[in-house]
Specification:
Layout (H helix, E strand, L loop, with lengths): L7 E4 L1 H4 L16 H4 L2 H7 L3 E4 L25 H13 L3 E6 L3 E3 L3 H9 L11 E2 L11 E2 L1 E2 L2 E6 L5 H18 L3 E4 L7 H12 L6 E4 L18 E2 L2 H13 L3 H11 L13 E3 L8 H4 L6 H10 L3 E5 L30 H16 L2 H4 L1 E7 L3 E8 L2 E8 L5 E3 L5 E4 L5 E3 L3 E3 L4 E6 L1
Parallel strand pairs: 1-2, 1-13, 2-3, 3-9, 9-10, 10-11, 12-13
Antiparallel strand pairs: 4-8, 5-6, 7-8, 14-15, 15-16, 16-21, 17-20, 18-19, 18-21
Length: 437
């Protein structure tokens, strides 16, 4: 499918556009044009799909939605979002939105009505309400929330009227904006039957609609990927394995996860499936901050874009943007205008090549994975399928090394140089992607 065959680019719209941290519910600010202005660059970079974090009306960060049918006024209007999606489509780039179906903000109109009318409104059945307790906001009632955050009101998805409301919202997003997929926030807390309902809903309008679920522990999420549920889930295991392995000079960490998840061993968990892969996102430290030795950055991204999975680049990280989880994660979500685009030209050029290679070679989308050579500071793996064989070799040490891949010859897709696959020489912090000839 289309989502298997290219690489994604993630944008946190409220941060990217420099929106206010708090919604004052005043006049509309027309900021979506700041994203549209980047489309030519993203096309040149090689992006095949953009994945937006929440952009519907909310109180603060987007995950506290209060209106599922209206674009956040800090960003623009529904018509402007429609035009933005059309502009991406004209550039050959698909658009995936963030679906937040587990909880809402306290200003969500049905919840406000519960606070006002208590037992005298049927909206009380949209939430898990305890009228004999009190909330941290002293509402005279209490309610289930998301993981102890009282500002995020958990939805009672078993309610049929609520189900109809949410599915109507999804149909509206597809029909009105023409979106191509959804990222499902905290999908690990969404019941499987809800995922199946959502799949049936989107299939009515788009057979190839992409559904990817946010999960933290992928070991217990295999059953969620199926034709009747999700296409993919987020690969936090390999995210953590990549950063840790490159920081600790212990490539056994990431290779162990790749074999455990994707090899042809009978006990591998996700063989033949593509999980959404990343080096950073809106919830974790920027990789330029997390990685202790920046000289390893090119090798890390080379591994990310060629290992099994759907690679996704977080906005600004193509320039080596830095950011930690300070100030309620605001450091992770700066305005694009604040990012220094001249900071790391070598990284940007490498990512252009990686986007191109990932899109041109189907073995990277559908091929099998096999470890070839592994030491603490260098390793090599093979991707084979669709009539081609590729090898990724990476060295994160300060000394030259020689890596065995296979017999025969190959050409490095990054440089065009030819190599004997039985003896690939790598300089310090160098990585190669070699197509067997």
């Amino acid at each position: 499918m289309w989502f298997d065959e290219g690489a994604f680019y993630q944008i946190y719209p409220l941060g990217f556009c420099g929106a206010e941290r708090e919604n004052d519910f005043g006049e509309i600010r027309h900021r979506l044009g700041l994203i549209e202005a980047e489309i030519p660059r993203l096309k040149e970079l090689g992006v095949k799909a953009v994945m937006f974090n929440p952009l519907f009306e909310s109180e603060r960060h987007g995950y506290d939605t209060i209106d599922f049918f209206k674009v956040d006024r800090r960003l623009g209007t529904n018509e402007e979002l429609k035009n933005l999606v059309a502009a991406f489509h004209a550039a050959g780039i698909r658009v995936v939105l963030d679906g937040v179906f587990h909880h809402t903000g306290r200003a969500f109109a049905p919840f406000r009505e519960v606070l006002q009318k208590r037992e005298d409104t049927d909206y009380r059945f949209w939430f898990n309400i305890d009228f004999y307790a009190d909330s941290p906001y002293h509402d005279g009632l209490n309610y289930d929330n998301w993981e102890g955050h009282a500002e995020l009101v958990r939805l009672r998805l078993e309610n049929c009227d609520l189900q109809n409301y949410l599915m109507d919202a999804v149909r509206y997003w597809i029909r009105e904006f023409g979106i191509d997929g959804l990222r499902l926030d905290v999908s690990y807390s969404l019941p499987v039957w809800f995922l199946e309902m959502l799949r049936r809903t989107v299939r009515e309008l788009k057979e190839d609609f992409f559904l990817v679920g946010e999960v933290i522990h992928i070991g217990n999420s295999m059953e969620r990927i199926s034709p009747e549920r999700l296409n993919s889930v987020t690969n936090y295991e390999c995210y953590k394995g990549l950063v840790s392995a490159f920081n600790c000079d212990n490539l056994f960490e990431i290779e162990h996860s790749l074999t455990r998840l994707f090899s042809n061993q009978p006990w591998s968990l996700y063989t033949g499936k593509n999980l959404l892969s990343f080096a950073d996102n809106h919830d974790v430290p920027r990789v330029a901050t997390a990685l202790r030795d920046g000289r390893k950055m090119l090798a890390l991204y080379t591994v990310l874009f060629t290992m099994p999975g759907i690679p996704c680049l977080y906005y600004g990280s193509e320039y080596g943007a830095r950011g930690d989880k300070g100030d309620a994660d605001v450091h992770l979500r700066p305005a694009m205008s604040e990012i220094d685009r001249s900071a790391n030209p070598e990284l940007y050029e490498r990512l252009k090549k990686l986007y191109r290679i990932r899109g041109e070679h189907r073995a990277l989308a559908y091929g099998c994975y096999e470890k070839r050579t592994l030491q603490n500071k260098f390793f090599c793996f093979r991707r084979e399928g669709c009539g081609e064989t590729l090898f990724t070799a990476a060295n994160i040490g300060e000394s030259d090394c020689t890596v065995y891949a296979d017999g025969g010859e190959g050409v490095d897709l990054l440089t065009g140089e030819s190599y004997a696959l039985g003896e690939i020489r790598l300089k310090p912090f160098e990585a190669k992607i070699i197509l067997k000839t």
